[in-house]
Write a structure and sequence with these properties.
15% strand; four-stranded mixed β-sheet; 2 domains; globular; 10 strands; 2-enoyl-CoA Hydratase, Chain A, domain 1; alpha/beta; six-stranded mixed β-sheet; Lyase 2-enoyl-coa Hydratase, Chain  A, domain 2
Amino acid sequence: MNTFPDYATLQVVPNGAHVLLVTINRPEVMNAINTQMGHDLLDLWRRIDAEPGDTRCVVLTGAGERAFCAGGDLKERNGMTVEAWRAQHELFERAFMAQMECQIPIVAAVNGVAYGGGCETVAACDFVYAAAQARFALTEVKLGIMPGGGGTQNLARAVGERRAKELILTARPFSAQEAHEWGLVNRVCADAADLMAQVFATAEEIAANAPLSVRQAKRSIHYGLQTDLLTGYRFEIEAYNRLITTEDRLEGVRAFNEKRAPQWKGR
C-alpha cells in the first residue's frame, strides 16, 4: 500500500490490501475546509492518481459523529482580502479537479452534515452511500457567493437540471432519503456503523476486480457523459482496446477457464 505524508487535516489509512480510507479530520469545526485542507486534498488526489500502487478504491468520510464536511471554514475566511480569497479558491479548484480526475474510484461515506463545499466534495465522488441521519445542502447563495467546487455541474448531473436549480437557488437542506430518491446518493444505511460496513463491502467488491479494467471503465463513463453518444462510444472502444494487450486480460480469461480466482497484477 502507498505511503502518504502526515497530513494536518486528513487521516489516510489502509483498510485491507487494496482499499484506502481517507477521513476528513477537523471534527472540532465539523470538518470545515480551510486552506491547509485544500493543500492536503490536492496533494492526496495527485499522489493517488500519479502512483496508485496497490490502491484500487478510496473510501472518503468525515471524522466524528456530526459531519462529513460542513463546507468552507468561514472563520478563516472572515476578513480575507479579495486577493487572499481568490488565491484560496484557486487552491480549492485545483483540489476539486484533482479529485474528479483521479483514476481510482472514490466512494463517499456520508456520516453527517455535508453542506456547501462538503456537499460538492460528495458530488465529486464516483458514488455515494449515506447514513440515514446525513443532511445535504448547497448554501452558498445565502452567503453572497455561489457553488464553486463543481456544485452546479455535478449536482445537476446527479439529480437533473430542475432539481439542482431548486436546491441551489433556495439553499434548502435535504435529507439522505431525499438525496437517494433524487439520485445523489446510491444507498441509505441505518447508522454510521452500518454505513461503513456497507461501504467497505462495496469497496472490496471493486478492489477484487481487474484494476486496469475498473480505471478504464471509470474514465469511459466520466468522459463519455461529457459528449454525444457516438463520440462517447468511440472513447469507450479506445479505452477497451487498451486492455486487450494487458497481462490482466490474459489472466482473467485463463482464470475463468481454469475455474479459479484471478491474480491481478495491474499491468
